[in-house]
Amino acid sequence: MTGLGRYYRAMDTPDIPARDRRAALDRVATWIDRYLDDSERFPVLSPVKPGQIAAQIPDRPPEAPEPLPRILDDFERLLLPGITHWNHPGFFAYFATTGSTPGVLAESLMAALNVNAMLWKTSPAATELEQRAVDWLRQMLGLGAGWFGVINDTASVTTMLALAAAREARPELDIRRRGMAGRADLPSLRVYCSEHAHSSVDKAVITLGLGHENCVHVPGDDAFRMRPDRLDAMMAADVEAGRLPLAIVATVGTTSTGSVDPVPAIVDVAARFGAWVHVDASYAGPAAIVPECRETLAGVDRADSLVVNPHKWLFTPQDCSAMFTRRPEVLKRAFSLVPEYLVTGEQDAVVNLMDYGVQLGRRFRALKLWMVIRAFGVSGIADRLRNHMELARRFASWVETEPGWVLAAPRMFSLVCFRHAPPGLSDDAADALNQRILDRVNDSGRAYLSHTKLRGRFVLRLAIGNLRTEERHVAEAWQLLREAAQAG
Ligand code: PLP
């Protein structure tokens, strides 16, 4: 067939013919259905070596079309061995997450609709549902009215947008118009966070051109929480030196230990210096949905912005990061720019999501948050979160009562930091031993944990966040850990 002939044939059936599509959809649905029931049949951590997957994929794209069944065969045969199964009940690394059934259904529908929610007009339901779904989340978190929310891809981007808004909140700096380079009139703009804050704060400072040296890491206390007295002193010293305290990022649920910075005291300090307060509750925020954990977000109602990631501990597939601000007009001032081709008649009467960030195009992420909240209900979500915290509490109690094992930080939410520290072993030798324990457990394919360093020492982390994790999975991880420790 000539090139032209093939072209005309493609034009007859531009997408995949209906019969083939139906068979492929059925096959994918069957595969997903089985996977969600027994992802345990796979090793949780992929055992492949670097380059092993790429070596099996042709380095040139196929010239001719390939049948969907063959492509799906290759998905199973070539790619699955290189998947680390975040949706496995033995996944305890980083912050464990869940692609839940309502979330998976929503992702499929989102892909089929392929909506771009950049403007209200380009899909009114996407914008209006986003406003509703984030407002549901606000209420679930126990926050007062007056917060405006949008959904971004990640907490990293949300934090960067929040810090850009903090900068815009100082109109006298005129940075949107004049930039920062080559300006002798600009003081150093300082952003404060705890020494345990996520690296996304540093990256946001770097990206915004504030200079990494202006990301100030405030020491934490014995329980890894930012010390407001030190914050206050560091901000005062900066003012004394002619620097401008721009913003504070408080963390509710730090990455290493889940510690919670004292937001009420931090907000008080911020008020003295006129600094913006952004709260990174991307992991632990959902705990506030559990009635007896409402205090998790104490003081946040006096902050300027907040990030909570439904894609972490709220059973929503990657990616879904809820950004809230009490000052949406400032965020909009930082980012709104409407070229002629995006002007619409109703733009003054509606929310156009493109006005609240860098990106123009936006996925219909609200669909999955809405479906997750409806399918589990607020009380069902609270029950599931409570169960995760109870499992973590049990695991922590096993560690505490086992000779030679210690908790390395207070158990927070669904996260436990611990370490094998047999008496008589030096700290350095214990570090190496814990690394070996971690590697052995992860090599087993039955559980996957990650690590951090606390006070310079290697510490194991077990984070519970997958809906399918039961006590037996946590018990198996504990068994594997003790066996690995015995192997030395
Ligand atoms: N903030 C905290 C406290 C985190 O633990 C993480 C990631 O684990 C992030 C921010 C970054 O999240 P994202 O991957 O959504 O950018």
Can you describe this structure?
With 488 residues, the chain is of the alpha/beta class. The protein folds into 2 domains: 18-45 and 84-100 and 375-488, Aspartate Aminotransferase, domain 1, CATH 3.90.1150.170; 116-363, Type I PLP-dependent aspartate aminotransferase-like (Major domain) (Aspartate Aminotransferase, domain 2, 3-Layer(aba) Sandwich), CATH 3.40.640.10. The chain contains 15 helices and 11 strands. It has a 7-stranded mixed β-sheet with strand order 1-7-6-5-4-2-3, sandwiched between helices. It has a 4-stranded antiparallel β-sheet with strand order 8-9-11-10. Helix 5 (124-140) runs parallel beside helix 13 (366-401) and helix 9 packs parallel to helix 10. The protein binds pyridoxal-5'-phosphate (PLP). Residues 94-95, 154-156, 198, 200, 251, 253-255, 280, 282-283, 309, 321 line the site of pyridoxal-5'-phosphate (PLP).
Say how many strands there are. Answer: 11
Placed side by side, the strands forming the largest sheet appear as 1-7-6-5-4-2-3
Head-to-tail CA distance between termini:
66 Å
Indicate how many domains the architecture comprises. 2
Provide the β-strand percentage band: 5-15%
Element pattern in H and E? HHHHHEHHEHEHEHEEHEHHEEHEEH
- Secondary-structure-derived class: alpha/beta
Overall residue-averaged pLDDT value:
96
- Overall body shape: globular
Q: Give the fraction of residues assigned to helices.
A: 40-55%
Specify the CATH class of the largest domain: Alpha Beta
What is the annotated CATH architecture of the largest domain?
3-Layer(aba) Sandwich
**CATH-assigned fold name of the largest domain:** Aspartate Aminotransferase, domain 2
Radius of gyration from the alpha-carbon trace, in angstroms: 25 Å
Q: Characterize the main sheet.
A: 7 strands, mixed
The stretches of 5 or more residues where confidence is low (pLDDT under 50) are none
The distinct bound ligands, ions and cofactors come out as:
pyridoxal-5'-phosphate
Q: Can you tell me the CATH superfamily of the largest domain? A: Type I PLP-dependent aspartate aminotransferase-like (Major domain)
Enumerate how many helices there are, as a single number.
15
